[in-house]
Amino acid sequence: MRPADNEALQVRQISPGVSGTLPTEPFINAKQASGLLHLSAKTLLRFARQGIVPAHPLTGKTRKQWRFLESELYAWAHERVNLVTSDPCLNSRRK
């Protein structure tokens, strides 16, 4: 039995003795992901192809389609903010 495309997918817990299912995070497309990161969709797709941003390729008939997880994008963006170590005012100072 396959779930309908619009239903949220669920995974079973593997732990023995524990029953029930855990909801999974839905994938979002490039347009939705680009809105979260305030990037153009073209830039986001280029980053996905280059492996810069976390993305999941789906094979299509003519080209790859990319899907993204919000939690991974937020973690990636947070990591990028913390990597900035340069002083933004350094270039404006005169010696």
Write the layout of secondary structure elements.
Layout: E1 10-12, E2 21-23, H1 30-37, H2 41-50, E3 56-58, E4 65-67, H3 70-83
Antiparallel strand pairs: 1-2, 3-4
Helix pairs in contact: 1-2
Structural notes for this entry:
- This protein has a domain at 25-80: Arc Repressor Mutant, subunit A, CATH 1.10.10.
- It has a two-stranded antiparallel ribbon. The chain has a two-stranded antiparallel ribbon with strand order 3-4.
- The longest helix is centred in the C-terminal third of the chain and has 14 residues, at 70-83.
- The protein contains three helices and four strands, in the order ββααββα.
- The model is unreliable at 1-15 (pLDDT under 50).
- The protein has 95 residues and is an alpha+beta fold.
- The termini are far apart.
- Helix 1 (30-37) crosses helix 2.
